[in-house]
Amino acid sequence: MPAGSDLKGNTMKTQFLTLTHIRLAIISVALMTSLALASTAWTAQADEGEHGHAHNEIATNDQSDSVVDEPSPSYKPGSKRSDLLNKGISKELNTELNEQPNEQHSEALFLTAQQQQLAGIEVVNLSSSTFNLDDVATATLIVDRDRTMTLAPQLDVRVLKRYVVPGQLVNQGQVLLTLGGAAVAQAQADYINAAAEWDRIKRMSQNTVSESQRLEAQVQAELTRANLEALKMTRVQINALVSQPESIGSYQLLAPINGRVQQDIAMLGQVSAGGTPLMQLTDESHLWVQAQLSAHQAEGISRGDKALVKVDGLSIEGTIIGRSHELDLVTRTEQVLVSIDNSKYRLHAGQFAELYLPSALSGGVILPDAALTRGADGHWQVFIQDADGFEAIEVEVVESQRGMNMVTGITANSRVVVSGAFLLGSELAKAGFDIHNH
């Protein structure tokens, strides 16, 4: 073979080997770069997973907070829905307690007003009076007569139109009925004439009209005005008659107070004789409790004393406002009246009640079963609300009857939880507080 051919073949072989080495070097660099990128991505993914887990925990806590902060209007204590809400409240309470691990001296559980409403927690103020379970009498709730108005026009009236229904809450000045009739028209006409005559005589000089004529005109005007007021017409309505005589024959009966419509017997077209009640308005924010006591029970009771009223498991402290000081000839009992606050409108006239009377001897605080829970040591405890929150104190149950308990060991004028104590007791146990560390 010629020498030129050998030289050409060696050159080609050398070029091939060089290209091969370059390719191997490129592949090696690419593999190393890929491994480095993969390692960096794995590390970033691991870090993101940890942050994502923490974010999910925060989101979960936010969701639980939203459950507590947005109560449903359908919440009812003791229902399945309330159990779920109580779990949400418990979770939030645990979070708050865990955020303060170093505050070992604080043994009060704090709940916002909204959380208390969700949990069905109710707090009452105790008085300095003591009671005895044996000093109890049956009673009946009646309307507060100082806050009740009977609408009974003193002249014959006919019901022309109705605007309310029985049981409806009305505001002062709201239209209840439109009344009319011949007697109404005559009374209104008499007032218009008498008012006009009195207005004419007032403008005349004393020398023109005698004093007796002046007095007679004034008395007639006031008399006819009084007749319209007996129809339950307002002063504004009466004064408007003089300028609008064409409106005689009817008027609108307005609510004299804020209250609830009761004993509504008015019917369209009905003609009621003067003095017949058409309806009754009652302000139920306060009620009276009427009880019949024996002479022994009534002994020592004075106006202004405190009494405890129990109605269907609800306990309310009231004030004795009067006693008859006279025994019924048949029952040989004395009537006692107690005024109670009903601003939440949970009670109604006609309900039966139990009245616990104040007792200076061997008495105590009367609390319902729902106010008592067992502590970690098995002793009875109640929850007191103060500026720091809810705190458990140990008490002694002296006697229990009919769902009520005579308890000692509570300071007078304390704010005691009478409903929802079980939830507070559960949170206290989970928090590990000990009521003996005071």
Describe the structure.
25% of the residues are buried. This protein has a six-stranded antiparallel barrel with strand order 2-11-14-13-12-15. Strands 3-10-8-5 form a four-stranded antiparallel β-sheet, with no helix packed on it. It has a four-stranded antiparallel β-sheet with strand order 7-6-4-9. The protein is an alpha+beta fold and 438 residues long. It contains eight helices and 22 strands. The chain has helices spanning 3-69, 80-98, 113-119, 182-202, 211-230, 235-243, 295-298, 421-431; strands at 122-125, 131-143, 148-151, 157-162, 169-170, 175-180, 250-254, 259-262, 271-272, 279-282, 286-293, 306-311, 314-327, 334-341, 352-358, 365-368, 373-374, 380-386, 389-394, 396-401, 404-408, 415-419. β13 and β14 form a beta hairpin. α1 crosses α2. It is 36% helix and 29% strand.
